Amino acid sequence: MTQNVIEVNGVSKAFGGVQANKDISLTVPDGKITGLIGPNGSGKTTLFNSIVGYHPIDEGSIRFEGREISKLRVQQIARLGLLRTFQQTRIFKNMNCVENMLIAVPHRKMTMLDMFDRANPEEMERAEMLLEFVGLYSKRKLTAGSLSFGQQKLLEFAMALMNEPKVLLLDEPTAGINPTLINGLIDRLKKANSEFGITLLIIEHNMRVIMNMADTIYCLAHGKMLASGTPEDIQNDQRVIDAYLGAH
Ligand SMILES: Nc1ncnc2c1ncn2[C@@H]1O[C@H](COP(=O)(O)OP(=O)(O)OP(=O)(O)O)[C@@H](O)[C@H]1O
């Protein structure tokens, strides 16, 4: 039987008078791809932030591999193997791709100079392998700032993989990416799941993308869980259709 690697139970979070999440429960099965959708402002990013320890929750429980993590801090949670990426990329634009990859691994207490002068050969090899995996090997010596936005997102994805996460939370991985690059990105995300065994939880506005990737999809609306099911269930769920139509 598939284990749930993340279990969110009855989570609520308010910012002043704004109830961003209300009594949210969801599970993320180990080794699968789970989608999280919902109109703008429905509380998706808030839920991501709660899961990775970015802010305390008001109520509820968040378990990772059976362990309560809702009181742990971001770095402690990251060390357990639960990482996230952001809507806006967080790369160092003046550094080249390989340097960005090496700096993505936070465990070493080294100065920057040490890091590049005496880069661990295994990490260097892994950095180059992952740049190859996302299709950026030929650009590895270029500064990250000179890459297109889509390529920067691929770099950020590869940087997250440097940390060998068990679970990766991706916040709108295809946002702002040229449609011709999107299929390549979907392919790499699926491969990271199937070949590296990384469980994915993905926030995505592009319905074609999420319907094509996810095993299960959860839909939020107004901070509450509106529906969940297979992509087919969700696509045909009148409540989901109404939530999106009502939002635009
Ligand atoms: N740090 C914060 N301070 C105050 N209000 C916040 C904060 N973060 C989120 N909110 C509010 O909480 C609600 C949910 O926002 P959230 O960003 O989680 O939604 P979302 O579904 O991720 O939206 P989008 O799809 O536009 O990214 C919104 O009303 C937002 O304004």
From TrEMBL:
- Record flagged with keyword tRNA processing: no
Q: Which InterPro entries match?
A: AAA+_ATPase, ABC_AA/LPS_Transport, ABC_transporter-like_ATP-bd, ABC_transporter-like_CS, BCA_ABC_TP_C, P-loop_NTPase
Report keywords, A-Z: ATP-binding, Nucleotide-binding, Transport
Q: Which GO terms describe its molecular function?
A: ATP binding; ATP hydrolysis activity
**What domain of life is recorded for the organism?**
Bacteria
Annotated ABC transporter domain ranges read: 6-247
SUPFAM superfamilies hit by this protein: P-loop containing nucleoside triphosphate hydrolases
**One GO CC term, this protein:** plasma membrane
Query: What family does this belong to?
Result: Belongs to the ABC transporter superfamily.
Could you identify this protein by its name? Branched-chain amino acid transport system ATP-binding protein
- Native source species: Dichotomicrobium thermohalophilum
